[in-house]
Write a structure and sequence with these properties.
alpha/beta, 5 strands, 39% helix, 13% strand
C-alpha cells in the first residue's frame, strides 16, 4: 500500500504511528542468563554450546541453542584445542595380537564392550600415567588407575579395580600397546571369559571411544589443573572421574544425561 498511497495516509487509516514503520525490535536477555552461562562454563570449561544449552535446560532455563551460541561468542567462551605430543603406546613387542571385533559392531547393552586407553599426566616435576576402562553403551568409567610408570602393572591394576565393581565385559577393546598385549593382562581377561579385541597399529580411530574419553579428561580436568605431586593428581583426577564425569557431566550421545543417570534408566 505504501507504494500506491502516502505513508502518512496509510498509517492514519490503519491507526498506527508512522515511526513504527522504522522500528527494529531489540532482543531483551532474560535476567541472569549470561551469569548462568558463565557458571556452567566455569564448572565445565570445555562444553560447547550444545552441552551448555542442555545443562541450562537441566537448570530450568528455557533457551535455544542458537541463542546460547550467540551469547557464548559474545562472552568469548569458545574452547581452544590443545596439541598433544607425548606418546604412551609401544606396539613393538613379542606378545600375540588380536583382531578388531568391534569395528562394525552395534553396541546395544551395558558391558557389551569396554574400551581401554592410557594417557600421560604432567606434574610440576615429571609425569604420571593414567589407565582407564569405559563401558561404551553407558559411557560409564568401570576402572582406572594412576601409576608412576608405564609398566604393565598400570593397566592390570585398572582392570582389577574394574572387576571389583561386579561388572564384566563381553569384549575388551584396546590398542596393541604392550601394556594390553602382555600375558598377565590377556590371561586375566580370558580367565573371566572376556573376548579380546584390538585396533590395528597406526589406526587410533579404531579405538575412537577411548580416544575421545581421554581427550575429555585432558581438556576438562588435566589441562585446567596444576598438580603438585602424585597424590594431588590422584585425588583430583579421581574426583573428576567418579563425581564430575559420572554424575554431573552430560553426554550428547546419552540424550544429555550423565552416565550414572543413563545407566540407572537402563536398569
Amino acid at each position: 500500500m505504501a507504494e500506491q498511497f502516502p505513508k502518512t495516509a496509510v498509517c492514519r487509516t490503519l491507526g498506527v504511528r508512522r515511526s513504527s514503520l522504522y522500528y527494529k525490535p531489540r532482543r531483551v536477555e532474560a535476567p541472569g542468563l549470561k551469569s548462568a552461562i558463565g557458571e556452567v562454563c566455569t564448572h565445565f570449561p570445555r562444553y560447547g554450546y550444545r552441552r551448555v544449552t542442555a545443562e541450562l535446560h537441566r537448570r530450568d532455563w528455557l533457551v535455544n541453542r542458537k541463542h546460547v551460541a550467540r551469547l557464548m561468542a559474545e562472552m568469548g567462551l569458545q574452547a581452544r584445542k590443545v596439541v598433544r605430543k607425548r606418546r604412551t603406546t609401544n606396539s613393538q613387542h613379542p606378545f600375540p595380537r588380536y583382531p578388531n571385533l568391534v569395528q562394525y559392531l552395534v553396541v546395544q547393552r551395558p558391558d557389551q564392550v569396554w574400551v581401554a586407553d592410557i594417557t600421560y599426566i604432567r606434574l610440576r616435576h615429571g609425569f604420571v600415567y593414567l589407565a582407564v576402562l569405559m563401558d561404551v553403551c553407558t559411557r560409564a568409567i568401570r576402572g582406572w588407575h594412576l601409576g608412576r610408570s608405564l609398566d604393565q602393572s598400570l593397566t592390570l591394576e585398572a582392570l582389577l579395580k574394574a572387576f571389583e565393581t561386579a561388572h564384566h565385559p563381553e569384549i575388551h577393546h584396546s590398542d596393541q600397546g604392550v601394556q594390553y598385549a602382555a600375558s598377565g593382562y590377556t590371561e586375566l581377561l580370558q580367565s573371566q571369559g572376556v573376548r579380546i579385541s584390538m585396533a590395528e597399529v597406526g589406526e587410533p580411530t579404531q579405538n575412537g571411544f577411548a580416544e575421545r574419553l581421554m581427550r575429555t579428561i585432558k581438556e576438562e580436568e588435566v589441562d585446567l589443573s596444576d598438580y603438585e605431586d602424585y597424590h594431588h593428581a590422584y585425588q583430583q583426577i579421581g574426583q573428576f572421574l567418579e563425581d564430575v564425569y559420572m554424575r554431573k557431566r552430560v553426554h550428547s550421545s546419552l540424550n544429555y544425561l550423565t552416565p550414572a543417570e543413563f545407566e540407572a534408566q537402563w536398569h
